[in-house]
Design a protein that fits this description.
Length: 530
């Protein structure tokens, strides 16, 4: 909303873990160095802990960009699983075909372990290193941690065949200090606790993010950095949320930069403290004035009176101020059915029926793929597909809801059997950041398309890039992924919030495929998506 006002190319304080925005403080450099050492080490466990919002996931994304080509990586972000469920997830992430055991509907733990061990031996024979990354690892149970330790038993005389990286909150370190987990603790070859930023680093962090988003203007005066540091405690995610709210408040007041009163009001909103009436009224008046000005700018030039048209009655849309700010699970539906009902709604948007089984496997059976990740609203807007979001109610209970429509002020969900539109504040307050969406896999054979390559995959890439530029793809035979095409790919990646490395990996491939998929369901209205 405020980007064009401040001359920003994109939102500078999104909470999405975009590696481009990673400010490499001394602590973050040390954390990344520990992870890289662990990946290149001899196997075992690497531990990275830190407070919520300290930047662990963003550092992990940065790590993924630097992992050697010889590594095969699986990333698990929701480890609230049983032993069998975790082993099944590991098999799915590595693409391990696992034959059924005694019970074909529920293979035994031994069957999963045997399949994983066979995969690790084969990968080692091919010169591959296998890395398993588990985020939010403080949610792992003791028996699951013990099973992970047993997986690292497979080794050669030089190294263990499985490297496991655990990311989690400080309680993860406390859990690993328990006597019953001492064997696992002894296998941790590198560990690091990511602490908060100090006052000087908070100031540098804000300048860094504003610079990446396209401005060198001092939107946050140096005199405010002490206040911002005290309010945020040096936690990057809280800095992001405070700065985002403060810029919005500055915009609606038509000011040039953030002042102390606006930052204080932003903190009240973020931390749910009642706002002073004297501050609320100017902000509200400024917001209404800005809305009126924006509406006036887009009013057409006066035209001669036209003949009246027949009146068509339509249901008036609720103004944003009248929308509910909390998304609640319908009392008539059992909360335990939220996941199944959410995926039923998601598959319905694609014209398919959900069969109540593994959603990603079912998606593959109908030519689709799952994208399960943790991100922010900007990421969902870029992907532009309906998604199942993991939400929390006022009591802290988790439930799944399907985001079917998104605009600048509201979000529409399929919740149970109902369709509910809420203000975007509901997402800020209730969304965990976890989402799953479906996308159509392009007809390519490689997981990555690299510069210098040629063949059918490069032919597909050439056609997608041409279509994005409104051109008809030339029927060139055996095109090569040359420098000109690399430049186009980098421009596309930069515009979509991806690392502009010129390599077409899964994220770039998904966005390229989605941009040209005219039959897929959209999250944004057509005029917003353009």
């Amino acid at each position: 909303m405020y980007q064009s006002y401040f001359g920003l190319a994109e939102a500078p304080f999104s909470i999405a873990p975009d590696p481009r925005y990673l400010y490499m403080s001394q602590r973050h450099q040390e954390a990344l160095a520990h992870l890289l050492y662990g990946v290149n080490g001899g196997g075992g466990f690497v531990l990275l802990t830190g407070e919520v919002g300290a930047g662990k996931t963003t550092i992990c994304r940065c790590l993924l960009e630097q992992i050697p080509e010889s590594c095969d990586v699986a990333y698990i972000f929701n480890p609230k699983l049983t032993v069998a469920e975790l082993l099944s997830t590991i098999c799915a992430e590595f693409g391990i075909a696992c034959p059924p055991g005694n019970d074909s509907a529920n293979p035994s733990v031994k069957v999963y372990v045997d399949c994983i061990n066979a995969y690790l031996l084969d990968a080692h024979a091919r010169g591959r290193h296998t890395v398993l990354i588990i985020d939010e690892a403080q949610n792992l149970s003791a028996d699951v941690l013990e099973q992970l330790r047993l997986l690292t038993n497979l080794e050669t005389s030089q190294r263990k065949l499985l490297q496991i990286i655990l990311l989690g909150q400080p309680e993860l370190a406390e859990m690993l200090a328990r006597p019953e987990l001492r064997q696992l603790a002894q296998r941790i070859i590198a560990r690091y606790h990511l602490g908060p930023l100090d006052r000087q680093e908070v100031a540098a962090y804000v300048r860094h993010r504003l610079g990446v988003s396209g401005t060198q203007r001092q939107l946050f005066p140096a005199a405010l950095m002490g206040q911002l540091y005290r309010l945020s405690g040096g936690i990057p995610r809280i800095v992001n949320v405070l700065c985002d709210r403060a810029l919005l408040g500055t915009y609606v007041q038509s000011k040039e930069r953030v002042d102390r009163a606006t930052l204080k009001q932003a903190a009240r909103e973020v931390f749910h403290k009642p706002a002073a009436r004297s501050m609320v009224r100017p902000l509200l008046a400024g917001l209404l004035a800005s809305a009126a000005l924006a509406a006036a700018m887009y009013l057409p030039v006066a035209q001669p009176p036209a003949q009246p048209k027949p009146e068509v009655k339509t249901e008036a849309a609720k103004p944003a101020a009248a929308l509910p700010v909390t998304l609640e699970w319908p009392a008539a539906e059992p909360l335990s059915r939220s996941k199944a009902m959410a995926y039923t709604a998601l598959f319905r948007t694609w014209g398919a029926d959900y069969q109540g089984e593994d959603e990603c496997r079912q998606a593959e059976a109908i030519g689709l793929r799952c994208q399960t990740a943790r991100g922010g609203l900007d990421e969902l807007r870029q992907l532009n597909r309906p998604a199942v979001l993991l939400m929390r109610d006022n009591l802290g209970q988790e439930f799944h809801a399907t985001l079917t429509r998104l605009d600048d002020q509201s979000a529409t969900f399929a919740v149970g059997t109902e369709s509910i539109t809420v203000a975007l504040g509901a997402l800020a307050e209730q969304w965990s950041g976890h989402y799953t969406l479906l996308w159509r896999m392009p007809p390519v054979a490689r997981k990555k398309i690299r510069p210098g390559e040629r063949g059918p995959d490069v032919e597909w890439l050439s056609g997608q890039l041409a279509q994005l530029h409104g051109k008809t793809a030339e029927a060139a035979k055996d095109p090569v992924f040359d420098e000109a095409m690399v430049r186009q790919v980098k421009q596309f990646q930069l515009a979509r919030g991806l690392t502009p490395d010129g390599t077409v990996g899964p994220q770039t491939m998904m966005r390229l495929s989605g941009a040209a998929d005219l039959t897929a369901p959209k999250l944004l209205r057509e005029q917003e998506a353009k």
